[in-house]
Amino acid sequence: SPPPREQYEVGERISEEFIAFANSSILSKFIGEHEFRNFARRVKDVPGSTRKRIYSCFAERVRVGDADWVCITLHGNAFMLNQIRKMVAVFILVARQQCPAAYIDLIFAAEPSSLDVPVSPAYPLVFDSAFFEDYNAMFADN
Question: Taking the model in full, what pTM does it have?
């Protein structure tokens, strides 16, 4: 279980214990192939259209000046920014103990639009970079 919630106050340092918990108990649930229909807006009823794969997903502590930040690195295929914001929102809910980690499994298993998955606010999220390995390889000869 994560450190007590009182440790997540603004200005506090992020512990290695928290990062280990985040990686092993929260972000590891996203790895693999899942139905991300509840992470998408206006899902069309096309079988497999929301089936996506995450190859790796992990957190690390980054210190910028006097502040600690959690940097989440996600390597997957065909994700939209809004879907990533929803994954971050679920991560925050579980990390702050506002819902159990089993909520992630429930989101993947639920029928489309039967759950209202929150979207994290754009600020203070920083989208650092995107890589299009498969797309670039497909058009490398052109």
Answer: 0.80
